[in-house]
Amino acid sequence: MIVSCRNVSKVFDDRVVVDELDLDVPAGQCFGLLGPNGAGKTTTLKMIYGVTRPTSGTVHVFGEDVSRDPRSVRKRLGVTLQENALIEVLSSVDNLRVFGRYHLLSEAEIEARVDSLLDFLDLRSHATLPVQALSGGYKRRLSIALSLMNDPELLILDEPTTGLDPAVRLSLWSRVGELRARGKTVLLTTHYMDEAERLCDRLAILSEGRVLVDGAPKQLILSHLARDAVELDQDPSRHAALLGALHDVKSLRGGRRLIFYGDDGPALLDATRRAGADHEGLHLRPTNLEDVFLSLTGTGLEGGA
Ligand SMILES: Nc1ncnc2c1ncn2[C@@H]1O[C@H](COP(=O)(O)OP(=O)(O)O)[C@@H](O)[C@H]1O
Ligand SMILES: [Mg+2]
User: Fold this and answer.
1) Whose CA is nearest to atom 27 of ligand 1?
2) How confident is the model over 280-300, as a mean pLDDT?
3) Enclosing domain of residue 38
4) Is there an atom of ligand 1 within 6 Å of 72 CB?
5) What's the pTM value of the predicted model, to 2 decimals?
6) 7 assigned to some structural domain
7) Which of 100, 156, 220, 266 is the most exposed place for a label (fewest CB within 10 A)?
8) CATH label of the domain that carries residue 267
9) 276 — pLDDT class (breaks 50, 70, 90)
10) Atom 3 of ligand 1 has which residue's CA nearest to it?
11) SS (H, E, C) the chain
């Protein structure tokens, strides 16, 4: 395992924000920590890269106890924080050079890595402008480039795509895919379930500092719910009748929304119509991770605390 957390808790001012967490990240996988704001994702990452100590429990990275020797662990990993940490008055190239010197790379190594990272993250066009003049998407890509300067075995990305437009998100996703294909281990957090579903080999869904479930995205969907979902918007006074008619079908409700789950979508859609659901707003879609989260907690991911 590249990362192994055992029974890890973190308490801030009597508040338990990470609660007896167990987590294993195998080599060469992209692992996602998924959960609403405040779930404890960033705190967990900080304990993994050794800037925050667990209140109890142990964190091993590359088989080493992080609290015993955080420096030796940090040499082998790259981190992109939730907030970009860039020197705004310097150019991208100079930010990368500064970081390379921090890692004690030779000047020749620095120039070679800067050159390849400018291409890899598509930074060439504005590489000599001060960072303060650049877009959010560009800064995010540069932050990721910085975290790759030491050619880390493990890359940690805290909400890499929050606030970015869809085109930039897509291009970052493909970069993460390439890193994984090159054998790097990636640990990322997100509150976008589409991102987690697309990128992650395995993921853990966190809520209030606890792992609710972990596994491969598809397997979580199939084991907790089913392949397809029929969703409808219906006056709550009609819910009881519909739920009664479809009593043997897995379902969820929230406000006016009713969702039924089944492995044969078209048959489920038919059954829902026959049970008397309004046709308007009735639709069939693939079940996703937000459904899993909703079924576990009764609240949506994006709308969570
Ligand atoms: N240094 C700190 N002192 C006190 N409370 C903190 C500190 N850091 C985080 N928290 C609290 O811990 C909880 C989890 O935070 P965080 O790990 O940042 O969640 P996430 O990254 O999932 O949004 C939040 O309620 C946050 O307010
Ligand atoms: Mg966070």
Assistant:
1) 38
2) 86
3) 3-216
4) no
5) 0.90
6) yes
7) 266
8) 3.30.70.860
9) confident
10) 12
11) CCEEEEEEEEEECCEEEEEEEEEEECCCCEEEEECCCCCCHHHHHHHHCCCCCCCEEEEEECCEECCCCHHHHHCCEEEECCCCCCCCCCEHHHHHHHHHHHCCCCHHHHHHHHHHHHHHCCCHHHCCCEHHHCCHHHHHHHHHHHHCCCCCCEEEEECCCCCCCHHHHHHHHHHHHHHHHCCCEEEEEECCHHHHHHHCCEEEEEECCEEEEEECHHHHHHHHCCCEEEEEECCHHHHHHHHHHCCCCEEEEECCEEEEEECCHHHHHHHHHHCCCCCCCCEEEECCHHHHHHHHHCCCCCCCC
